Amino acid sequence: MIELYCGDGKGKTTASVGLAIRAAGHKIPVYFYQFMKDGSSGEIEILKTIPGIHVKYPPVFYGFVRNMTKEQKEEMKDHYMSMLQTVNHIIEEHSKEQIIIVLDEIIHACNYQLLPESELCRMLKHCSSNIETILTGRNPSQALLDLADYVSDIQKVKHPFDQGLLAREGIEF
After folding, report:
1. Mapped to the 3 state alphabet, what secondary structure does the chain carry?
2. Which of 86, 106, 109, 159 sits 20 to 30 Å CA-CA off 12?
3. CB 69 within 8 A of CB 55
């Protein structure tokens, strides 16, 4: 099954972390891959300590895409493609087992052309039914919406960022 947590509201990553913890509690292997982040958020540190959860994020991250140089974008593309290829190998190796794959902020990476959505869709179409894949991010394409079995649209009603407040450690990251 494919689950999609999207929208402009807070909680997409938090929902995927909750699902990862639930699965690990049932001894289901979890592969938590984080895109568009640098691995410094609080959930990553705790996920690394939970048996059965495997965490991966890019070795470098340059912040907002709009501030990246062309070279930095190319480097991110290479890292993201490598991460997706690794996920493909995991899917092939575990095709007969129940596993959870979380691709946090992968929709964002596709939207900014840092990862070809066509490659993501191809991978999703070849997942066996016992592999649960969770995608997070804003503005999923119609192709991703069509592939998904679950879609949760998390909408912002009010957010401190709108008043100029930055993300707070332990709360938003």
Report:
1. CEEEEECCCCCHHHHHHHHHHHHHHCCCCEEEEECCCCCCCHHHHHHCCCCCEEEECCCCCCCCHHHCCHHHHHHHHHHHHHHHHHHHHHHHHCCCCCEEEEEECHHHHHHCCCCCHHHHHHHHHCCCCCEEEEEECCCCCHHHHHHCCEEEECCCCCCHHHHCCCCCCCCCC
2. 86
3. no
CA distance 20 to 4: 14
- In the block, which residue shows the tokens 């991250």? 61
Residues 33-58 pLDDT 10s: 999 998 888 899 999 999 999 999 99
The answer to whether residue 170 scores a pLDDT higher than 90 is no
The C-alpha atoms of residue 150 and residue 19 are separated, in whole angstroms, by 13
pLDDT tier at 11, thresholds 50, 70, 90? very high
Q: What is the mean pLDDT of the chain?
A: 95
Please determine, for residue 140, whether its predicted confidence score (pLDDT) is greater than 90.
Answer: yes
How far from 27 is each of 2, 91, 110, CA to CA, in Å? Answer: 20, 17, 31
pLDDT > 70 fraction of the chain, expressed in percent and rounded: 100
- Contact between 91 and 101 under an 8 Å Cβ cutoff? The reply is yes
